[in-house]
Amino acid sequence: MKRFDFGQGSPIDIKKMLEARNPASYGQYEEQVSSIVEDVRKNGDEAVFRYTAMFDKAAISLQTLRVTESEMEEAFGKVDKAYVRSLEKAAARIEAHHQKQRRYSWFDTDAHGTMLGQKVLPIERAGVYVPGGKAVYPSSVLMNVLPAKVAGVEHILMTTPPDAAGKVNPLTLVAARISGVEEIYKVGGAQAIAAMAFGTGTIPKVDKIVGPGNIYVALAKKAVYGFVNIDSIAGPSEILVIADETANPAFVAADMLSQAEHDELASAVLVTTSRELADQVERELKGQTSRLSRSAIIEASLENYGAIVVVGTLEEAIAITNEIAPEHLEICTRDPFEVMNKVRNAGAIFLGNFSPEPLGDYMAGPNHVLPTNATSRFFSPLSVDDFIKKTSIIHFNEAALKELEEDIIRLAEGEELTAHAQAVRIRFAGDGVTGGTK
Ligand code: NAD
In this predicted complex, what is the ipTM? Predict the structure, then answer.
């Protein structure tokens, strides 16, 4: 854990520390990923089965590629009823939040005879990648599928790696059913992304691929971008806590640890105006880590990418935060709303002592797929917007076009595009008949 006192450290130091985790440094995997993607594009299902045997040690065939209804029932038999109810409760809250994000087509008319607008439609096919290698993420199923459902996407499919016995984790299947996905294929990694991007004999091509995954998944999404749309390339998780002397040090430390446990690349940073709180949080971090199951990961993450920064004022804390642009920001100060108003860059902001980050991971309602690696400067959380597209609508009657005739011709001729000018001029040239049709 690094410790900076303002004046010794600077915002740039922490930024540098975090930049070391940038996906740009993952170059060594790119060649392998692009050869997997090309292979699946060329050889379809056969390549999918080959890579699944190689990386997941599972023998999958045309008969077993898609999850069946009896596998779904088996999964429900294995999952605790209380767990199912909690997932349903989370799904209802997530859906309600995303309903507020819906957009509708609109049309404006004016007295001159124009109608201009935007037609808003869902994309037709979405593919959701659900990781399943080292851990299981049913919450990711809800967070990625429900915005697509709310947007009105008709065809949503899911891919997730099978275990060596060719089975999908029951929690993933239960979450898929609760969020309303019926088409689930047992394939993971770069081969899953390629299958959804290009289609195979069995797996249909989609318009957009969303969902987190390891480095193979992330680089494959980058490789297929353009053939299909993608959500984003998610980097390792981050939390930054702004706290003053009113914060509870045990709460602050617990929330930092909740991110540090994700993996060794995760980052947890505290920026505080109170030297006393900084000392207390440092002690809490040590004490609490020893009692947690993932203490080895936490220690590595705090050592590499953890920091406590003491600043003179909250204004300085806000300036550092805006520079770092964290994925998750917690504000534990006397007046968190006032601080929030001055924050420009953050994926999600948690206000006050009783809004811990894991609340947002599972139950609050807003999406937990958030921009990482300082990309909250220009990216937003996953939302219904990710699953819609817009088409411009233009209608002018004769009088309305006449009003703009001269301007259009002038602008077209300025660009030396005489056919553009002619397409307008012809409509007002006497009987509208040219030499060509005589
Ligand atoms: P995964 O499903 O992403 O990856 C498993 C797949 O990786 C396998 O099916 C295999 O095809 C491929 N693979 C493994 N080793 C390979 C190799 N040597 N060469 C080529 N391909 C190989 O599951 P995971 O590995 O557990 O990773 C999940 C990731 O998702 C983690 O990094 C986790 O942090 C991230 N995640 C992020 C969020 C978020 O919201 N940002 C949520 C959940 C998970």
Answer: 0.96
